[in-house]
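HUMAN: You are asked to prepare a plain-text protein record giving the amino acid sequence and the backbone structure tokens, both parts labelled.

ASSISTANT:
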Amino acid sequence: MQEILKDNTSDKASVKSLCENYILLKKEISKIIVGQSNIIEQIFVSVLSKGHCLLIGVPGLAKTLIVKTLAEVFDLNFSRIQFTPDLMPSDITGTEILESALNGGKTFKFIKGPIFTNLLLADEINRTPPKTQSALLEAMQEHRVTAAGNTYTLEEPFFVLATQNPIEQEGTYPLPEAQLDRFMFNLWLDYPSIDEEVEVINKTTSLYEPVLEKIFSKQEIIKYQNLVRKVPVADEVIRYVVNVVTKSRPTHPTAPKFIKDYLSWGAGPRASQYLIIGAKALCILEGRFSPTIDDIKRISISVLRHRLILNFNAEADNVSVLDLINKLFEDNSG
């Protein structure tokens, strides 16, 4: 396996340019988005990791605006799909139409849907039935689409940023576990501070109209995604991640009592993969050449929150997923 080394001049230069461009990225985004620095950081980590993000928050927290702003600073093709109860799978993947040929006959022609893009915003993804939600499964995992008996490869880079409102229940459809597992991060947006909200009001109720500069091109994103894959990870860090994820599974012999008491299902191998690749991206964004256990802990909640399934005992005892994740890492602090 090819790995990045501290004395590799080319890789060191790439890490430096990535860090510089990341600073510019945050500066451009801050022209529109106030605060939410941790959310923006983790979204960019998922982009570098070739992952997808699910953004959850109450209305008005700029979930959609964050994605649209990112699309503007990335020099990428962008599509937005507003998920509704009557949305059909073909509205996402595309459909066949019958058209007249030059010889007078009829032929079928496939018209590609909005999924054929680089950055896809799946807005309010839980507002459409599972039949339509499943149209994203193959694209998110294999980066390809099968329609009308043919398979089409999606252009790289490709990632899905989906939004979801947690307080509305009527007219919504919970995402299946297979769909959730394909999201690298589950990010919860919180309310802004008083100072941040004052700044939001000042910007949005005036003639302020920022102009955003493009920071990352397709080729640069692909280059940095490959750079992340070259970052070496110490064996003890990998073993630490695997041990923690394994202990989250209530049927495993090493699972602690609180996991067996409160979880129906634990995290699968994707959790270990995303914890490692996410820690790699996080460390080079800070100019470091190998991730530590602290990097793992910084992204642990976003990776594990939607992969641990609580049982009835947890609900009865008012135990949350965050409680279990924190306790899991506390018990594995060594």
